[in-house]
Every structure is written in C-alpha cells, then in structure tokens.
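anyone seen this seq b4? input:
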Amino acid sequence: MKKEKTYQERTVYLVGNPNTGKTSLFNQLTGLNQRVGNFPGITVEKKTGSFISPTGKKINIIDLPGVYSLDSQSADEKLAADYIKKSKDEIILIVTDATNLKRNLVLATQIMDLKKTIVIAVNMMDLLQKANMDIDFGKLSKLLGVPIIPVNARIGKGIDELKYALANHDISASKSFLGEHSKHPLMDENLLRYNKIDSIIKQTVHKKGENKLALQTLRFDKWITHKYFGFLIFLS
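predicted toks r here
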C-alpha cells in the first residue's frame, strides 16, 4: 500500500534584482537540500532546493536569474520574466535590498500588477542599521498589501519568520499596484509607478529618531494652537 504524504507541497520562485543577496537567502532557506542544473533549452544555471516547514509542508524553491525589470531584454532576465508571468499557484518571493528599496520596488510592483501571490523579503538589514535608517514594515506591508519580512541572509536572521510566511501565506493574488491607472492611454505608466513608489518610501523609510521628532513637533504644535495654552506660551 502506497504511503500517503502527510504534508502539502508548495513551489516558490525566488526573484530579485542582482546584488540583493538572493543567493545567500537561497542558501539559508535550503541548506544542503540543493540541486544544480540548467533551465530547459538554454544554458542558464538552474538552482533548486527545498525545506520542510515546522507545520510539515514541503517548500520547493526555484532560484530564477536576477532581473531588474519584467521588460528587460537580456536572455537571463527574459527567462526569469517568463517564469514570473506564467506562474499560477507558485509564490513569488521577491528579495530586496533594504538600502535600495526604492529601486527594487520597481520589479516588485510590476509583479504585483500581474496579480501574483507575493512575499517580499527585505534583506541586508545590517547595512540599513549602519546607515542609521529605519523602515516601518507594518505600514509598508499595509500600503503594498503583501507580507513583508525583514531578513539578514548573511547571518540567517529572520529566516525562520520567512519560512513560516512562505508555508502559511494564503494562495491568493496580490492587489494591482497601479490598478486601473496602468490602462490609461494618456498616462505614463513608468512615471506613475516611480511617483507612487517614491510616496510610499517617504512614508515608511526614515532616519532613526525622525518619527519621534515628528511626534514631538506635532504635540508642540497642538499646544501652540490651543485656544488658551498657546496664548500663554506666546506671552512667555
């Protein structure tokens, strides 16, 4: 009698711009469970691996070539874009560099416009801290409408949280980033995308202490404009 599997399998496409630490993240997620070959019909290296989640799900990971944009023309990038565009039940794990989030979100939001199932890993958190910067991940996740996990793939920080997200994330499409605006013939899609990304970055990425200072300023402004106390402060 054939033994029935006690876990579900799920496939993840690992994608991201070059130099975002994608290879390090792949190694952290899969450990020694890796295989190297070529993509069918092309001499581009194909790395695959897997891990078993704490809940018993087998997560298969396919590391796609680095890609800057779904519109890129190089052979490697076109291959990655084709896999992304043709994906159905796969989760798209997008690796980003915490210090270059604005640039990396171009690819991420293009994939969102395809309404794919997405998880975003924000890597290189150690470099962000060295730059004395901070990201409001809760707000960023809410604005984009997708799960966002901060990681440091170099030392393995955040990997358990990422594995949990990949194993438990509902298989449902992300909302379109540009929505109906992307279909408007009189609007420049790239300009719309860059402007919207810029707005999100300004709301979520700050120098450490900026949010605290802004809150203190807001509280002081409320005192200044108060009907009675503002007048007393003015007299002093």
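Residues 1-7, 212-220, 222-236 have pLDDT under 50 and may be disordered. Strands lie at 9-16, 34-38, 45-52, 58-63, 91-97, 117-123, 133-135, 148-150, 205-207. kinda curious what u guys think
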